[in-house]
């Protein structure tokens, strides 16, 4: 179960900048939520707090009915897909997708099955042996998605992952992500500045 509850979540940086102020949000299991707001609205900060990459100054983060406040990222069963390319350049596509599974000591047979399944869903089967530098921007984002879905997390956090693509590729990736959410057993929270993108992809839109 991948419901999410945020209770009075705030984030105050040491500089005095207030990024989040008493955010309250309830997300149902397998819901697709879009967070929409300007560049400094706190979308990325909120995703990072949910993932455990940043600690909230105040408030509570509950994932799957369990209080995850203060729990390390690796124990939250959350995958975050960033806006910028975060692939390992020295690893090929197969190895990049498999990285999280190997770090969690999955058996090789399970790693192979999950990587190939993710590659099949995302149209990456033919490029599994290629390095990231030989891929298009859209393919690299697909690999990042593949690395996430291979882990089969409860919660997917997407930080405007297709912002750098041209209009045609953005449209392709929007369709892919919508179809992906329908196929995997997870809850999606998608941050974007694009109003049309939020309205066409999400089942509910949260304005920040």
What this model shows, in words?
With 208 residues, the chain is α/β, with parallel strands linked by helices. It contains six helices and nine strands, in the order βββαβββαααβαβαβ. It has helices at 43-51, 93-103, 108-122, 137-150, 167-183, 195-201; strands at residues 4-12, 18-27, 32-36, 58-63, 66-67, 78-81, 155-159, 187-192, 204-207. The strands form two sheets. Strands 6-7-8-3-9 form a five-stranded parallel β-sheet, with helices on both faces. A four-stranded antiparallel β-sheet has the order 2-1-4-5, with helices on one face. β1 (4-12) and β2 form a beta hairpin. α3 crosses α4 (137-150). The longest helix is centred in the C-terminal third of the chain and has 17 residues, at 167-183. It is globular, with a radius of gyration of 17 Å. The mean pLDDT is 93.
Task: Summarize it.
With 208 residues, the protein is of the alpha/beta class. The protein has helices spanning 43-51, 93-103, 108-122, 137-150, 167-183, 195-201; strands at residues 4-12, 18-27, 32-36, 58-63, 66-67, 78-81, 155-159, 187-192, 204-207.
Q: How would you sum up the major sheet?
A: 5 strands, parallel
What is the helical fraction, as a range of percent?
25-40%
| Fraction of residues in β-strands | 15-25%
Q: SSE string, helix = H, strand = E? A: EEEHEEEHHHEHEHE
DSSP helical segment count: 6
How many strands?
9
Mean of all residue-level pLDDT scores:
93
Span from first to last CA? 26 Å
Radius of gyration: 17 Å
- Unreliable runs, pLDDT <50, ≥5 residues? none
**Per the principal axes of the C-alpha atoms, what is the gross shape?**
globular
Structural class determined from secondary elements: alpha/beta
